[in-house]
Structure formats: structure tokens, C-alpha cells
Amino acid sequence: MVRIEPKNKRRLLQAALGEVEADLALINCRLVNVFTGEIYPAVVYVTEGFIAHVETEELEGPYAAKEIYDGQGKYLIPGLIDSHMHIESSMMTPRNFARVALPHGTTTIVHDPHELANVYGVEGVRYMHDIAEGLPMRQLVDIPSCVPAVPGCENAGAAFFADEIRELAGLKRVVGLAEVMDFYGVIHGDPRMVEIIRAAEDCGLYLQGHAPALRGRQLSAYLCGGPSTCHETTAADEALGKLRAGMYVDARESSISRNVAAVWEGVRNSHFFDTLTLCSDDRESDDLLHEGHLNAVVRKAVSCGMDPVQAVKCATIHTAREIGVAHIGAVAPGYSADMVLTEDLRSLWADAVFYEGRLVAKCGRLVVEIPERHAKLEERNSVRVPELSEEDFVLRAPEGKTRVKVRVMEYISKDGSRTRCIEEELPVEDGRICLGEEMAFVSVVNRYGRGTRSVGIVKNFGLRDGAIASTVSHDSHNLTIVYFHPQDALAAARELAEKGGGMTAVKDGKVLYTLRLEVGGLMTCLQAEELAQVAAQMKETERSLGLTVPSNPLLRIVSLALPVIPEVKMSDLGLVSVAEQKILPVFVEE
Amino acid sequence: MVRIEPKNKRRLLQAALGEVEADLALINCRLVNVFTGEIYPAVVYVTEGFIAHVETEELEGPYAAKEIYDGQGKYLIPGLIDSHMHIESSMMTPRNFARVALPHGTTTIVHDPHELANVYGVEGVRYMHDIAEGLPMRQLVDIPSCVPAVPGCENAGAAFFADEIRELAGLKRVVGLAEVMDFYGVIHGDPRMVEIIRAAEDCGLYLQGHAPALRGRQLSAYLCGGPSTCHETTAADEALGKLRAGMYVDARESSISRNVAAVWEGVRNSHFFDTLTLCSDDRESDDLLHEGHLNAVVRKAVSCGMDPVQAVKCATIHTAREIGVAHIGAVAPGYSADMVLTEDLRSLWADAVFYEGRLVAKCGRLVVEIPERHAKLEERNSVRVPELSEEDFVLRAPEGKTRVKVRVMEYISKDGSRTRCIEEELPVEDGRICLGEEMAFVSVVNRYGRGTRSVGIVKNFGLRDGAIASTVSHDSHNLTIVYFHPQDALAAARELAEKGGGMTAVKDGKVLYTLRLEVGGLMTCLQAEELAQVAAQMKETERSLGLTVPSNPLLRIVSLALPVIPEVKMSDLGLVSVAEQKILPVFVEE
After folding, report:
1. How far apart are the C-alpha atoms of A473 and A504, rounded to whole Å?
2. How many CB atoms lie within 10 A of CB A423?
């Protein structure tokens, strides 16, 4: 149970009563009241990191406070709360993420360390939780519910059952069970899922859902099963259906999926938005630096026609209620003094950001020192692959064949992750399969010491030359390589094994460029500015190999091994049929 | 932690999916959606007492359900939830209260067994909780926080500290800590109050407040101290101040205090009402029978200008959120199937009431059998007073005086409970004080075997003749008697001691009429219809003794000993100065 409370409550009470000086008086601001929707001049008294009193009458002082901050007539809103996100998606560590998100006015995030959990299990979740200690940002944690995403079709670095949930629920900033993706498991009462949900409920956690495209009876069943929120809504009618069913709709605007417009289109005629919140899900460093974090999501909602005060409300108190945490999400007595001053409620650039009553950012820049803090886990090389040779990346035809029918994973479009399974007859040379048009080889190598690996063929992936590889490969994050020549695959694998993970591009057996992600093969210790530069260089290199997908080329490979997106995906165990949840042989037997 | 969940979740999921027949299909209704504020035609499928699915498209059937209920085009709203009330105020037992409130559409109450706690302590709370087992109404319990109301100035039947709170928090329908009345204790950090609040927070309970007339810095301090709700709001500006401060405002319309109009006047221009709820607090049998229960409060709010859908929302899902209980307060998948059909959203007479999917009332009549259930405690005589004589009710002057100056408790008006302390010089005859104009004697006799009692004088109480007495006497419920002649007082005391409590009227040493309240001296085992008749007779008898106060005459005496209402009150320890929290001598020393 997360309790937001002052260390010295007695002093807070005395400051509220005016018996002692407050620590801070924030004067000359226009308070946006998320309870009444009003905007009015106010003086906010802060003590012990909490709001002691909001004065609406005696605005001219004198102010019984040690420090005065002049709001210069700007709007004062509560610190923004992101209802669902993954820090790992920023490729930054939790502390560096805070450095870049705080200046945008985000003071609380509800994050799901799902990626690192797949790499390091309970230890990974503990790291993500513990490393945030002492940050001037509230990083609340939802415990990953589906590790691995599809048991039996892939080997991740860990597997979570009810026991892991119970263990992690004891951590002090844990609030929920994270996105329950195993929708089939929930609605059909799969014992493992039922037990995980039961454990979470017993521990008093809220159940975050994950219900893409769910409607009608399936949506009803999912809600009856327990989860009460969803950030995967992409269509207007879907949004209205979920709102009507009492589901929290966490409207998402990530670097990849931009759904706020569609959600708003669906719900704009609703009279109430109590269960509408905003979230960023996955945001990369470049977007975080230049577009913003949750303030960018609010801005998007407002640009779609949502009332700015309503949008702020959705991004603050609604989320606090959704996750069941009291005393955050409003500028009111007894609430944590997390506040943002902004000149314009529509663009929502943060002029000043306060966390627990302390000024932490001004004009888009951090103004507090965030002390370095490191853990042993950051130094560990998570990429544990066996000794590999070129031969390991050769797709050999069955003995004696000159042509062979192969199951190929074909991307449906240049964007997106959906594929279909096609069968193609391909020629064989020296026992090796020869690629057809628009094809490349793909290999997924287990990187958790299991020794499992697979080789197959992908079509319309987009790569034209060389090889690219990544240890960011949802959700198991095995080493995933797309290539034409085994020597390039080997070079890529060796490079990432040596560097402890990341993304690399190879040509003619030589590494062209590597984006090193040494923390669990998912995150770098670089800060946002440096990371953005390195990432830009990596993108450029991938584009130079012909990977000219419309969106971020780095993201093309990261969902290649995600066996929850139809129709087929590659895992370290082979070609996975998503609907059947089983492994298909690469060669079609005749 | 209160969990609202089906016994057989698997079956609920299957019914949601349409894989098995639902238990019930409620067809042909206009659903009032409290999430979106929309009203639209729907079919509601119920299984295992929960809503499995709400169909908005295939309305014409066929319906995969064992039973069909035709809503005849009426509005379907969630079962009403009363955010704060005392069952004892109805003078009925919890089961009989359910019998009369259910037909009005109240399916959940949050009640505070404060009165019986003052009589029987932990055992009293357990009785109120346990006796509700198996009722077709959800009687959630808040644990009384202030037993006794004013420690040191009165002897109640029990005293609660943090340990009692922790013990009672383990009961399965306990959700909160009840109205924290000791406002001074909260804002000044009184150790007992701090520990009680801490215990409640540790047990995950919400903190129900009690903050009459609180504004500005005192309100801020109270909120910083923990409590987050208030049902004592009586003025418009007070209501707005509380809503702005993030406090839940539980607008009250009781038999005694009618505050909905004032609250609405204050908040009507607010854009949001997320933290506005409705409550009945204290309703007597007559009102329950003829005016209604929470539906009467909704009706009042609507008559004041509140949108009917908003009012229904305030009386359902808002309260569920306030008390932190999921899956009640809406007609949506996964919610308890507590529902009301009504022809008119403005008057809100309940045409049909469903509790956990079962039809429990129709056209204002209960249609289910509520099995009798009794506890030993109901048979116990709680009135433990010493052997009394006429002399015990004589107010004797100090030796040798012929005139003496006396502190008199004077009522300010014929209505209400406020008094002031005046000093009057009165003649003495045979050593006895003689009453002046508009005066009567008052005696409060401890009825918990403590042997303490007091005699004093009250002015402007309203009685003209005989004596009246009551064991309903907030909050300690000691035996309280107003009289002119000691023989009448003695007769009244003996009558109530023999009957196990209640209210009685005496003249010329003879009992005129007694309303017997044998359960803890507070409640009868009679049902509402009989009780209303008996109570009417009792009122009539009191009026015949000259007690012609504008409101219910039975309520005149019940706050005479309530030492939280200024300026003075009588307790079993003597005349209490409410502001100073100390006992004042009856005779002024000169």
C-alpha cells in the first residue's frame, strides 16, 4: 500500500493553522482546481512537502512563509501523472528518465518494468524500483503480469507466477499489477492467470488491463475477470464501448502509437470523463526532449478539442483515483505539493515544476542535482549466448533437396508489426536455402544461457544489405538478427554479446555502428541528450542499409519476436503461430 | 478489505462470453450510464449475482438466459448507496431497517454503529455487523472513532482506542473509520486521535470526517490530519469551500437536518461533482415509510435543480469511490447486480429493486423473505442503574440557604440543540431548589453500572407537566430525565430500567406511555409500520405534556446530554462546559 504522507504531520498541521511559518508560499498564481473545474487566484502554502493550505481570500499577504515564489500570474496545475508507461522504452535508466521528464511537468509515473523483468526477473523489477530511491519524481510500479508473454513459445530470462507477484507487492512504491496482456487467460480462466490476479487482489493492487480491440462480450468477460483499465484503445467506437463499460481508458500518445485523437473522437459526446486518463506508454529520448512527455499528450488532447481543464484533470486526479493512491493529483490541503506553473494551458510547457514542494525544474531545465546512483546489475552483461559460428546462421535444406517449400513470415506493410505466414518454394545451393525477392534471414538466439536459437526467413522487413541486430526484442528480448550473410549475423551477435546488448548494424562482416544498451541489453547509462545523438546515428546507419520504413527504423526489429501479434512471429524456439500458440516447422513437409 | 466478487467467477465469465445461459436477462429498459451520463436502451445479463454483460445492440433477443425480466421501458439505475447513516436512528434493528429501505432502492449503506458502540462497545459493533449476515442489502460498516464523544466529561458504556479500531477492522464488511468528530483532536494532534487515525490507515480504511462549519485554515488542517469526507455541511459557502479543498461533501437530508438545498446552492456552479455524494444520516421510521430513504434525498437534490442523472451518479458510483469499494455503484460488467427500475428519474420511486441480481422489492413492497435472525445481545437489559429513590432526584440547596444562585442550561430556541449557560437566583423551600419560569429539573443517570448521576436545571426545554425520559441520549446514551417532581422522575427511571430502555412519559407518578427500545436501549425489534404507530403515540403523549416543539418532540431530549454542542450540556458527571471540556458546579459559589 502506497502512503503519501508527511514525515512530520504535526508541523504540517501547525502550518495549516498558521501557527508556524510555512516552508513556501506560492503567490500570484491562477489555480486550476481539478475538483470544481474553476480557475481562480490563490496563494498556496507548502510545508513538509505537502500543501498545508490554499488561500483564496487574503491574497495580498503578509505571507507566513520562509520562502515566497512568485507565480507571475501563471496557471498552477497539479504535477502530471502518467497512467501507464515503460521506462525501458526511453532506453534510459529510471534516474535519467526522471531528468528529462521532470522539466515537462511529470511528477508521477506509473510504470511497468516489464522489459527488464523479462531479462532479470524479480531482480530486474527490484532494480527498477530501488534505483528510483530519493528521486524528485514519484516512480510508482505496476508488477509485470505476463512474464513471459507466451509461455511455451519462447524462453525469456524469467517466468512470473503468483509467488513472484506476492513477493514484489511488498515493495513500497508498488501500486498495481501491470497490463494483463494474457486476455485469453483472463476470459477463459487459465489457472496461472487466475492465480496471479488473485494474488494481486489479495495484496490490494489494482489490476491494469491490456485489451486491444476488445468489444462486446469479450470486453465484458475481461472486465468480469478483473482488469479495469486499458491503454490499448485505438478506435473511436472501442473507446466509447470501454468508457460505457466502466473501464478506465488510458488514452495513449506514444512515440509509436498515437491514439488520443481516435479515443477523443469516440468519447467526446460523453457527459463525464471520470474514467479517462492519459498516458505515454513508450516514448523515445528524441520525443522526450523535443515534444515533451505527458504534457505533450495533454496538448494533443486539447488540440483534438478537449477542454484544457478537463485534460489536466484526466492527467492528474483521475489517474490518482484509478491507481488508488490518495493525496496526489490535486493542489489541495493534505496533497503532496507536486505542482506545475504554466503560461498556457493549451500548449502546457512547464515554466516551473515543484515536486514535494521543491522547485525541481524551471523553463524546461532541471534545477536540482539528481545524485548519481548505481547498482551492480548495471555492470552485469546480460547477453549470455553460446559460442557461435557462421554455420549457426545458415539455413540448411533437408538432405538432398534442390528446391524446398519454406514457411516465411511476411510483413503486411512497411509500418506496423502484423505479419502473415506464407509458403514459398525456394532454391537450394550447396545445401543452403537461397533467399527470394524482398526476403532476409532472421535468427533469434536465446540470451539467457538456455542455448535455444532459431533460423528462418522474413519477407518485406525492409532491410536491403548487411545485417541489423538487437537485444531489445519484445517481450523476451532475445538476441534478434536480420541478415543476408551468416558472417554478418555472426559479427552482429559477437558485437552485442561483447557490448552487453544494444542495437548494431553490420556490413561485410564489419560493425558499422552500435547503440550500446548495457543495462540488461535494454537501457544505456547515457542521458537523454547524448542518447538522442547516438540513436540518430544508429537510425541513419540502419537507413543506409536500406531500412527506409516510414517510422523509426530502430523499432522495426523490436517487435519481430513478439508472439502476441498475429499471424506469425519468430522466437528462440522457432516460428510461432500466434493464434495457435505453437511452433510451426520452417520447412513444409510434403 | 471489502471484496465484492462472485462465488463462481468461472461461470460469470462463461455467461459474459455467452457460452452458458445467464441467470437473468433484464430486457426493455433504458439504462442510465453513470460513467458517460448517457441513457440508452439495453439488455442486462446477470449471473452469479453480477452483471455479466450489457448488450446495447442485439436488443430483440433471443436472450440466452434462464429468466427474463421485462423492464417495460423504465429507467434502470444502479442500486443507491447511502454514504453515511446510523441504523440506530431509525430505532430499528439492521434487519428491519433493510426491510423498509430496500423497497426504496437502497441496496448499500455505509453505516456507523456509533450509538450501540457507546452502549456495548466492540460487542455492539460486532452485533450490528454480524446480524446483517445474509441480508439482501449490503450494510457496510465504518468503525466509530469517538467513543465516548468527550472523554472525561461523561461515562459511556465503552471507550475506543487504537486497539479497538484494529480489532474491528478485521470484520468483513468494515470499510472505514466513522465520522471523526474530535476535530480539535485531529488538528491539534491529540495522541489518542492520532493513534486511532494511524490504526485505521494501517488497516486500509478510509477516514470519514465530521467537520460542521469548518472553513479556511481549520478545514485545511482537518484535511491534512486525514479525514476526507464530511456530511455536516449546512451552508452554501461551506459546501463550495469543502468541494474546492477536495473533500467529499456528503449532502445530507435526514429527518432532523435538511442540508441538500444549501449544499446545492453552494456548488451548483461547479463544473464537476466527482466528490459530491448523498446521505440520509438519521431517518426515523415514519419518514422511511412515507418519504423514502436515499431516493428521497436524490428527489430533493433534483427538486433543487440538480440534473437527475448527476444526482443518481452522486448517489451511486461517487460513493463507491469515496469508500474505496470496487464493483458496486454502476450497471456494468463485473459489477454487483444491484439495480433499480424507475419510471421517473425525478421522483425516483422504485418500481423494482434487484440486489445481487435477485428481485427483492416491487412497487414499494418487499418480495423476498428476510429470515428472522436474533442475537443474545437483543435480549440483554442494557439499563444498569442503581436502586433509586425520590431523594435522588431532588436538587438540594447548600445547607442553610434560602436563595441560591444556580447555573441553568437554557435552550436558545424551541428547535435545535444549542444552549447557553445562565445564572439564576432561585428560592429554596425545605432545602429544595424551587424552579423559576420555563424551567424543569434534569437528571442524567449513568446506565452502565458506574453509579454516576447528576441533577440540574434546564430552561426553555418546552415541557410543561409530568416527566419524560429517554435512554436514547447522544452520544453516551445515559438515562436522561426532564421533570418537575422527583416522584415522576423516579417512575420514569424505574419504567425504563424495567423495560430495558426506550422513551417514556409520566404524570402524577404514573407512566402514560412507553416506547420500548429493548435492544441496547436504542432499538426495537418491531418493524417499521408498527414502530411508526408506537412512535406516533409516544409523540402525542409528549405533546400532551406541553412539549410542543416545532419538530419531532421525541428528538428534544436526545441531544440534551450531547457535550459537543455549545454552550453547556448535562452529563452523568454534571453540567459540562462544551468549550472548556470541563464540569461546572451547579451552584455558583459566592
Report:
1. 13
2. 10
Inspect the interface and report whether the beta carbons of B189 and A9 lie closer than 8 Å.
Answer: yes
Shortest Cα distance, chain B CAs vs residue A458, angstroms: 36
CB pairs under 8 A between A and B: 174
Q: Is B218 on the interface with A (CB under 8 A)?
A: yes
Over chain A, what is the mean pLDDT? 96
Q: Assign residue A53 a region: left if phi > 0, alpha if psi is -120 to 50, beta otherwise?
A: beta
pTM across the whole model: 0.96
The mean pLDDT of B463-491, rounded to a whole number, is 97
Separation between Cα atoms, residue B348 and residue B106, nearest integer Å: 11
CB distance B43 to B54 below 8 Å = yes
What does residue B291 show for φ and ψ, rounded to 5 degrees?
-100, -40
Q: What is the DSSP letter of A560?
A: T
CA distance B351 to A323: 36
And the C-alpha cell for B225? 490530519
**Is the confidence at residue B590, as pLDDT, over 80?**
no
The partner residues of B487 in beta bridges, in order of sequence, read none
Residue of chain B nearest A226, judged by CA positions: B334
Task: At A303, list the grid cell.
Answer: 488540440
What is the C-alpha separation between A308 and A43, in angstroms, rounded?
Answer: 22
**So what's the pLDDT on residue B1?**
73
Angle between helices A236-244 and A216-225 (to 10 degrees): 50
CB A501, CB A481: distance < 8 Å:
no
* C-alpha torsion sign, points B509, B514, B518, B523: negative
- Residues of B whose CB is below 8 A from A17: 187, 217-218, 220-221
Those of residues 152-171 in A touching chain B at CB distance below 8 A are none
Q: What is the ipTM of this complex?
A: 0.95
| Cα separation values, A6 from A12, A18, A129, B225, Å | 8, 17, 21, 10
Determine contact, residues A423/A551, Cβ cutoff 8 Å: no
User: 472486465: which residue's cell?
Assistant: A223
